[in-house]
Amino acid sequence: MQTTWKGTISFGLVSIPVHLYSATQEHDVALHQVHAKDGARVRMKRYCEREEKEVPYAEIAKGYESPDGRTVTLSDADLADLPLPSKKVIDVLAFVDEGEIDPLMFSKAYYVGVADKAAAKPYALLRDALVESGQIAVTKIALRTRESPAVLRVHDGTLVLQTCIWPDEVRPATGIAPEENVTVRPQELKMARSLMDTLSEDFDLSQLHDDYQQALQQVITARLEGVEVPHEEEPGAAPDNVIDLMEALRSSLRQAKGGRAPAEGERAAEEAASEEAPARKPAPRKRAAAKKTAEAAEGTGAAKRTTTRKAATSAKSANSVRSTKSTKSAEPPKSGRAAKSAAPRKVS
Known about the structure:
disordered C terminus; 11 strands; seven-stranded mixed beta barrel; single chain
């Protein structure tokens, strides 16, 4: 393994000569820039604008342009002679709990190895002290042209130095998360936890693989062999709005379990959610029944009022008839002359 950096860990008055080795490697498929018309390689040339000619890499230096347009040229020697105390020293500043460092700050990782046999004991001392305390060491280191904060921690019995970005380089997350108040019901949370537990069963991180690189290699192989490029069916569009969160969780849980029946705790969560769901929804049937009852009551009242009016009319008519009869029977008898004039005349 190629050495990336050589220096010393400064731990109080203890110095540990060490070497750094890259702990990770990426497995990208190497792609070059080519001319789409004929496939010929396209190369980037270093071109001097003032002399209007290509210059070799050995004549390339770094430069800084000031706001007023002036350019300062910095050579490799200028950068190598920077007055940095962390240039060749990993200075241990403090020991903190790992949870105090935001994972957003973590960057590239390096294995730390001893430079000679004399460094083995202080190396083991620092490693074992970190393991026993459960802490990590906060340090600073200058790598290439950049000084960075870093942490020392233990991985598989080996010290690992992981560079970090500076705290003020982490962007704030203000305004990204939902700002409105959202209420999560206990049943939904319990169902989500059940789904999390199901997805975590028998999970092995080492079994993950890069599907993109595999698909890209299949396309390259097909083009080399002159056969048809394989195509995958496009996945359906994901729903942009969850109408029934509980039903989505329940379906996800069944899918994660491969269609098998839910466990006792999951079934209890589903039943509790099902029991609460109707109580929270509007009840149109109840309103309709209430409306029908009101209409029936109103109809009954109207019928009663109609019957009452009819009874009152009948009673009034009967009273009127009785009153008329009483009036006639109460009239006095007519006189004899009047009775005679009222009688029909006989025709001779």
